[in-house]
Design goal:
heterodimer, A: mainly beta, globular, B: mainly beta, 7-stranded mixed beta sheet
């Protein structure tokens, strides 16, 4: 079945460091790919998405590019802030239904 | 516009008790779903609905029932709670079941079964 694998955390960075969170997927068709963020005590919010190969999603300084050849959707940010501390989830859904398949989540901690 | 609301925020049940987790959305979304979040496992789909009167099972439906009598509400029922159902439950909604519309999540219900 469809699945998402993302790097284990927690990831601990100093403020202004470069962030990469790896995400790879397995799917039988052509999924759309998402990054969701969960701040402490809250529900999930969509951070960015890409719906076809080579699309780049971006929001709030975060970016991810849909790489079909490597089945990846790595999340990057050039300079993290303390306020970026959260849990980040990579997810996919297939074009025939809006049912999200999530990775396990990666905890990010940013220290000042 | 409240978005997706869930009640209660916290709940403790004894094994065998029943309860209903409430979910409501005011965005006139067709599609609603329930997920559970467990450490190291991300979120897993329990049940979903593509419109009023239509529901279907997700990845982990056992022990849970749902119904969708109105567009706005999508309650999740635990008929006989078990410790394995200790989790954080999230309700989500989106404009349509078809395609890649953004799903909007509620704040969650933290359930402990003793």
């Amino acid at each position: 079945g469809d699945s998402v694998t993302q790097m284990e955390g927690p990831v601990t960075l100093s403020e202004e460091a470069f962030l990469t969170i790896n995400c790879t997927y397995t799917a039988t068709g052509y999924p759309s790919l998402f990054w969701y963020v969960q701040y402490p005590g809250e529900g999930l919010q969509l951070l960015l998405k890409a719906t076809k190969a080579d699309d780049k999603g971006s929001n709030k300084g975060f970016e991810a590019t849909y790489r079909k050849e490597t089945t990846s959707f790595h999340l990057e940010k050039g300079s993290v802030q303390v306020s970026d501390s959260a849990v980040y989830f990579c997810a996919l859904n297939m074009e025939y239904g809006n049912k999200l398949v999530f990775g396990a989540g990666t905890i990010l901690r940013v220290k000042s | 516009n409240a978005g997706v609301t869930q009640t209660p925020k916290f709940q403790v049940l004894k094994t065998g008790q029943s309860m209903t987790l409430q979910c409501a959305q005011d965005m006139n979304h067709e599609y609603m779903s329930w997920y559970r979040q467990d450490p190291g496992m991300g979120l897993r789909l329990i049940h979903y609905s593509v419109g009023a009167g239509i529901t279907d099972q997700g990845e982990v439906p056992n022990g849970y029932n749902v119904s969708r009598s109105t567009t706005e509400d999508f309650p999740l029922r635990l008929l006989s709670a078990a410790p394995s159902q200790t989790s954080v439950y999230f309700c989500a909604s989106s404009f349509s079941a078809l395609g890649s519309y953004e799903q909007y999540f509620g704040p969650g219900t933290r359930l402990t079964v003793t």
